[in-house]
């Protein structure tokens, strides 16, 4: 499934995914039943960790939905653990330069090229039979560009062999230039930075993604973004009951 997802990105196809902050396998199972192209289990701003990941990853596996873990930081052992527990790949936040990107890639690969330690606890259950070569070949490494520094260094970042994708964090990117965080991405400067990242990704043959406000998803797909966050558990679970209560109470 990692290979299939990368093949779709390579062909320039837009893919749409769900973002899960809760540590609930039930929520993952429900969201995956809708048929997203991938799911992100968030360990940076959510509850995905070594204790919750096995259940979350099993829930995604029921529908064979590729599951990518956003780790809390560019931490080699944490990246290795997410992959060992069966993640198809990782999203590494706050990657600002090529050296940090190389560190993230190394964490996804075994030696001598990489730094991953061997112990594919759940990853070994997948087919084809697990080996260091299979592990190296199937672990998707996505780095986040979400600061002005990252945008300034983007050509060097995407030139790092093994960076499969760049995910732009619109909230942190806006903050980095002194704007309030918003998924609406209506600030021309933020938008220009995002298109700079997209162009660098395109030139390097690397996928680019972001999480825009729902109404703007078609715009970013038309701009050539290949992985777009479409839905987040927290947003649905807070918005929908609020709307239902307002309707029920005749507000
Ligand atoms: C950001 O916008 O900074 C994010 O990390 C979005 O997920
Ligand atoms: Mg962010």
How would the blueprint of this fold be written?
Elements: H1 2-10, E1 15-20, H2 25-33, E2 38-42, H3 53-62, E3 67-70, H4 76-84, E4 89-92, H5 98-107, H6 132-138, E5 140-145, H7 148-152, H8 154-158, E6 165-168, H9 170-176, H10 188-204, E7 207-210, H11 217-222, E8 227-232, H12 233-248
Parallel strand pairs: 1-2, 1-8, 2-3, 3-4, 4-5, 5-6, 6-7, 7-8
Helix pairs in contact: 2-3, 4-5
Task: Please provide a written account of the structure.
The chain is of the alpha/beta class and 251 residues long. The protein has a single domain (2-248), classed as TIM Barrel, CATH 3.20.20. Helix content is 44%, strand content 16%. It is built from twelve helices and eight strands. The chain has helices at residues 2-10, 25-33, 53-62, 76-84, 98-107, 132-138, 148-152, 154-158, 170-176, 188-204, 217-222, 233-248, and strands spanning 15-20, 38-42, 67-70, 89-92, 140-145, 165-168, 207-210, 227-232. Strands 1-2-3-4-5-6-7-8 form an eight-stranded parallel β-barrel, surrounded by seven helices. It starts with a helix and ends with a helix. The chain binds 3-hydroxypyruvic acid and magnesium ion (MG). Residues 146, 169-172, 211 line the site of 3-hydroxypyruvic acid. Magnesium ion binds next to helix 9.
